[in-house]
Structures are given as C-alpha cells and as structure tokens.
Amino acid sequence: MFTDIGPLEVVALAVMAIVIFGPDKLPKLIQDTMGFIRKVRAFADSAKDDIRTELGPEFQDFEFTDLHPKTFVRKQLMGGNEDPLGFKELKDGLDFKSALNDEPPTRSSAPARTADLTKSAPVSSGAPLAAGERPPFDLDAT
User: Fold this and answer.
1) Residue ranges per domain, the chain?
2) Whole-structure pTM value
3) By the 8 A CB rule, do 92 and 111 touch?
C-alpha cells in the first residue's frame, strides 16, 4: 500500500503536516492517531477471537486470510500439498541459460521425464467425409 511513496514524497508530507498543524500540535496529533490505530486493531482482533469461539473448537486454527478468493481457490483446487501438479519437477528440469544462449541443454541432476509418443492413440485413416458431413467428435481431445 505504501510502497508507491518515495522518500521525497514522505519528506513533502512531513513538511506539509508541520505547516498545517504546527510543530506544537503535531506530536499530540501523531499520538492520537496511533492510539486510534491501536484501538481499531484491538477491536479487529477481539472480533476475530469472538468469531473463532462461536465457530467451535474445530475452527480454532482458522485463518481469515483463507477467505481471500485467490487463497481460497488455491487451497481448494491444489489442496494442502505444496506442489500437487508437479510443476517443481518440471521447473527443476529446465535450463533457461542454455535456451537463451542457443546452446544444447545440459543434463541436470534431476531425472527429466520425456513423453513417449509411440504409445499415442492410432490415427484412423477412415473414408473421406462426404460434403456436409460432420467430422467425428473426440471428447478426449477437448
């Protein structure tokens, strides 16, 4: 949220605060603001604790960040496993440096899996289709 603010902008905001509120009232204003933020955090924490107690003991380890749509979908689709689709093995087998330098790929320490194309389904060489005839529909291809 605050990563877009540079050091020069922070200095400009501090100078504006000193000019607007004055050097006498600025410490009190900062103290009041920090107190307000502490109260809001305490209220949010107590609300989370109340929700956890109302849900019951099976939800004591429930995290509210799990309700974020991106996290929720990732957990539901991928499960609790760190790499359920095996992308880590695929990533470890790639050698980007040799691909960028147009060099032949080097063997990595991890065994690379290769696809066996000889076991693919045979292509049927049936009769040609008549005019207006629809080609056969393959459910596995879609």
Assistant:
1) 1-56, 63-106
2) 0.43
3) no
